[in-house]
């Protein structure tokens, strides 16, 4: 997923702290929990917007858990890493880790330390292959491309599509490839495939041939920084096709170039603060009161991951490393803000597809389920 990157050192430091300060034994076997004292959960978070959102979401979850009496009578204590790569304490029983520049290395360290790690956003397909202590709470980027292709073909009933992807972006490439493969399988035709530079500002030369080919939908799996400007120029160029995107759009800054150009577009994603679901409304209201502003999907994923770990501890009856890992693996239909979650045999999240419509500078859910 396209977000600001957290330092890999943060995750590794928290995991190392767990290994050195009591979570594992000298023969690298997971140490048993003594069932006393606070339960420490590590959180990878730095001073970046994504890091702060991760920290905020985890804090919200921990505060709610503790206010309700904790887990099995014990309080949750969060242990944060910072840009200096230091951990405020040790003995963590699990780690909730936001975007990581080196997810594969972090996963390997978690497995070695026998500490359950739940990533909120790693898109590397190899991530969970590191071992049975490593989990992913969000879906793969390729899943978004497949889901949008199905929505375009089956719900919008589009027969022709163009794709405009961001050059040099693995996120954009993965979504674009999955969209093309699945849209074609469903009988659709991809009439054009175009790319724009990450630093691009003027897209009109790119958009002229697109206007002339007149596709029914245009898939733009990029980040919000350029999509808003591209959409505005597309409308100015006379392109009337329905614009489609992924969760990289899901930021209020998307609309800085003009919200009207994006009205009627659709994106795949996991969360919107404008979702009318009761749990989402409460979270958005509480988040605004606690931190100011609207929560984004990064905060919601960290909130879900922290609560999921606590739920697993409660089901296991212990924060013992092996028991906790087994309980997380057995998670089924956990009701989170970002959708009901189960883990498959590869410890990847199984969640419903969510599609949001863009209208008036906001994202509203229009589909939740299986396509």
Plain-language structure description:
The protein has 371 residues and is of the alpha/beta class. It folds into two domains: 8-139 and 277-351, Rossmann fold (3-Layer(aba) Sandwich); 141-269, Rossmann fold. Helices cover 37% and strands 19% of the residues. The protein has ten helices and 15 strands. The protein has helices at 8-20, 49-67, 103-113, 141-154, 170-185, 204-213, 224-236, 278-291, 297-316, 321-329; strands spanning 39-44, 76-80, 94-97, 116-119, 134-136, 160-166, 189-196, 217-219, 242-245, 266-268, 334-336, 339-343, 349-350, 353-359, 362-369. The strands form three sheets. It has a seven-stranded mixed sheet, sandwiched between helices. α2 (49-67) links the parallel β1 and β2 (76-80). The longest helix has 20 residues, at 297-316. It is elongated and about 70 Å long. The two termini are 21 Å apart. The relative contact order is 0.15.
Write the topology of this structure:
Elements lengths: L7 H13 L18 E6 L4 H19 L8 E5 L13 E4 L5 H11 L2 E4 L14 E3 L4 H14 L5 E7 L3 H16 L3 E8 L7 H10 L3 E3 L4 H13 L5 E4 L20 E3 L9 H14 L5 H20 L4 H9 L4 E3 L2 E5 L5 E2 L2 E7 L2 E8 L2
Parallel strand pairs: 1-2, 1-3, 3-4, 4-5, 6-7, 6-8, 8-9, 9-10
Antiparallel strand pairs: 10-14, 11-12, 12-13, 14-15
């Amino acid at each position: 997923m396209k977000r600001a990157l957290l330092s890999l050192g943060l995750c590794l430091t928290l995991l190392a702290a767990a290994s050195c300060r009591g979570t594992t034994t000298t023969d690298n076997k997971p140490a048993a929990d003594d069932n006393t004292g606070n339960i420490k959960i590590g959180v990878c978070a730095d001073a970046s917007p994504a890091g702060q959102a991760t920290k905020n979401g985890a804090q919200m979850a921990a505060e709610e858990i503790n206010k309700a009496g904790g887990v099995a009578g014990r309080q949750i204590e969060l242990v944060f890493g910072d840009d200096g790569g230091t951990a405020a304490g040790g003995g963590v029983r699990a780690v909730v880790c936001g975007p990581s520049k080196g997810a594969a290395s972090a996963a390997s360290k978690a497995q070695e330390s026998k500490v359950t790690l739940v990533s909120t956003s790693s898109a590397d397909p190899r991530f969970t292959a590191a071992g049975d202590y490593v989990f992913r709470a969000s879906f793969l980027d390729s899943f978004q491309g497949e889901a949008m292709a199905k929505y375009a073909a089956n719900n919008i009933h589009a027969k022709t599509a163009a794709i405009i992807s961001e050059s040099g972006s693995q996120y954009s490439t993965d979504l674009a490839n999955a969209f093309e493969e699945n849209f074609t399988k469903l009988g659709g035709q991809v009439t054009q495939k175009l790319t724009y530079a990450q630093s691009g500002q003027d897209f009109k030369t790119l958009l002229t041939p697109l206007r002339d080919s007149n596709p029914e939908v245009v898939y733009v799996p990029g980040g919000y920084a350029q999509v808003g400007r591209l959409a505005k120029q597309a409308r100015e160029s006379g392109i009337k096709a329905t614009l489609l995107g992924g969760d990289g759009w899901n930021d209020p800054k998307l609309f800085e170039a003009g919200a009207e150009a994006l009205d009627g577009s659709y994106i795949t994603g996991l969360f919107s603060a404008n979702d009318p679901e009761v749990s989402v409304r409460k979270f958005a209201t509480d988040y605004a009161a606690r931190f100011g502003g609207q929560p984004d999907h990064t905060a919601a994923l960290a909130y879900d991951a922290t609560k999921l770990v606590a739920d697993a501890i409660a089901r296991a009856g212990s924060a013992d490393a092996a028991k906790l890992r087994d309980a997380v693996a057995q998670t089924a239909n956990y009701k989170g803000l970002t959708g009901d979650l189960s883990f498959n045999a590869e410890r990847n999240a199984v969640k419903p597809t969510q599609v949001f419509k863009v209208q008036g500078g906001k994202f509203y859910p229009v589909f939740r389920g299986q396509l």
